[in-house]
Specification:
- This protein is an alpha+beta fold.
- The protein is built from eleven helices and ten strands.
- Helix 2 runs antiparallel to helix 5 (about 165-195), helix 3 packs across helix 4 (about 125-155) and helix 3 (about 90-115) packs antiparallel against helix 6 (about 210-230).
- It is elongated and about 85 Å long.
- The termini are far apart.
- The mean pLDDT is about 95.
- It binds the ligand Nc1nc2c(c(=O)[nH]1)N[C@H]1C(S)=C(S)[C@@H](COP(=O)(O)O)O[C@H]1N2 and molybdenum atom.
Length: about 400
Amino acid sequence: MVRDPEPRVKTSLRAWLFQPLPPPPAALRRGPLRPGAFDSRSRSARLTSLLGIALAVAFTVCFVTGLISHFIQHPPWWFGWPSRPVGLYRVTQGVHVATGLASVPLLGAKLWSVYPRLFAWPPVRDPVHAIERAGIAALVAAALFQLISGILNIAHWYEPMPFFFTAGHYWSAWLAIGALLAHIGVKLPIVRSALRHRTPERAPAGSISRRGLLGTVGAAAGIITLATAGQTVAPLAPIAVLAPRRPGTGPQHLPVNKTAGGAGVRDAIFAPGYRLTLTGPGRTRNLALADLAALPQHTVVLPISCVEGWSSTGTWTGVRLRDLVELAGVDPEDAEAFVESLETRGRYRATTVPPPHVRDPFTLIALRLGGEPLHPDHGYPARLIAPNRPGVLQTKWVGRITVRGMQ
Ligand SMILES: Nc1nc2c(c(=O)[nH]1)N[C@H]1C(S)=C(S)[C@@H](COP(=O)(O)O)O[C@H]1N2
Ligand SMILES: [Mo]
């Protein structure tokens, strides 16, 4: 008789996964490991659950908006980003940075509410418990890495990050969201029962109550949001004391991320022989600044929306990119333009403008800002400005445009 070995394999795997592991010697139980080392009554499953829910929502919104920003900059074949509404990216990226910052006090309180478990005894009960603890370690590490690297980036403080910020922040985001989903899967029953059964408040005199703690954390998250939202919500700018950049500041009332001096383009942009080289299939034109100024001029009101979360609106005047595409002999309804800066190195010296943005009449090679010639730090003599696009793709000091039809 042949018997199916499956059920036995399954039960023995289960038995192995949940087999009790030998506890470590009791002599190790000292300091925070001793019984009763933590007895704050303010900690409870309910508090941890409420903080966990808030954090899960903030992290998910932050992850999705971050993914959008990443895909706009590195589009996979199936991803398309429209050129309208003009300020959509300003909103998604503002929300990305705001939810990340609001997560700081939430994560701090959440870690406080559970850190005594770091010293649980025995440290691991069985193999499944070991896996769960490893997952939590990965989640905490990835979450801290996301928040710290994000804050360092908006503060322009790159020295503590010996890796390329964008790649590190992107890949560890997947680790964080994966570990978060697994964590939610494991903890959901506990959260459910904690929310169903209201445990009576037992905070003794002198210690903070659960409601007081949640109120403080909520207020901290609110204050951080209010004190930074002004970097993109203009009416809140006066109270944006925590924001690294504020709308309306800088030359021509617009913040600058990289100066002409910093990019090493000062000589090239003021050279009398400056020409914008415009290349299409089988034809190249060299346009002097006077040639560009002689083409039909258009004025648009569009924001620079930096990935760092700040944004600021400007009134830009210049030549429509679609007119230049036509001049290069390509149908502007279905074309791509590769725009290069006079900046010779630097990660943001060139960008591809996809068909929806080439087509859009708001996309300009701008020559003026607020009616004046562009300030050198804003891209003199000519810069790209397109609707609904990350600031990092709004190339300054444009020297060359190469046009390609999509058919
Ligand atoms: N050539 C070049 N263009 C560039 C950059 C750069 O480093 N080099 N930085 C970009 C970034 S990150 C932003 S947010 C905008 C800022 O434009 P502004 O300095 O005029 O406000 O310029 C973009 N254009
Ligand atoms: Mo930027």
